[in-house]
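Bug #2210: token dump truncated for HD/PDEase domain-containing protein?
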Amino acid sequence: MPKGSKNHFEHFLDRSLSHVIRFSGNPQHFHETVGEHSFYVAYFTAILSHFLKKKGVKIDEAKAMKIALVHDMEESFSGDIRGPFKHRSKEVLDAIRKAGREIIPLVFDDLPADLGKEFVSLWKEDTQQKTIEAQVVKAADELSLIAKCHEEAKVGNEFFRPIYERHLEKLRETKHPWWKEIKDQILPTS
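Reproduced locally. Full output below:
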């Protein structure tokens, strides 16, 4: 290896998101890892992008897919912080977000500097929710959460029903102009 260059192999070996369990405080029939969740967020992002393109809405699909893939990468350090705790107060949420901003560069530290900077920038874009790509990923994130809750409720786990209903209603009330173009094709009618 040339002097001064990094070996990036270590990054390929890090599968920590495959071991971070979501909803760790809830009884579950089917444990879901952050890695599994991120797969569905990326998959749902591709589907939403398809519907948007069919409606003539401009979206950078490759950028949206990258945001989907990195949107929860800080959880390789923090774990999945439970929603009721995270959203308990503005101060707690602000502290968690601040810690995430400080930690996220470390997640990509063993990648080439330009790629690490790109991934950090995309992660920050997701947290700011100002671009259509970040907003689409957020909708895909909600759909992934709803799908997980549906799966649990379907097999009788009533702990997930209120979460399902709350997040489905949240998507129904989303006001983004692009979402209004496609939501009837995505959400259930009843």
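Output looks complete on our side. Residues 21-186 form a domain with the Hypothetical protein af1432 fold (CATH 1.10.3210.10). Marking as cannot-reproduce; reopen if the truncation happens again.
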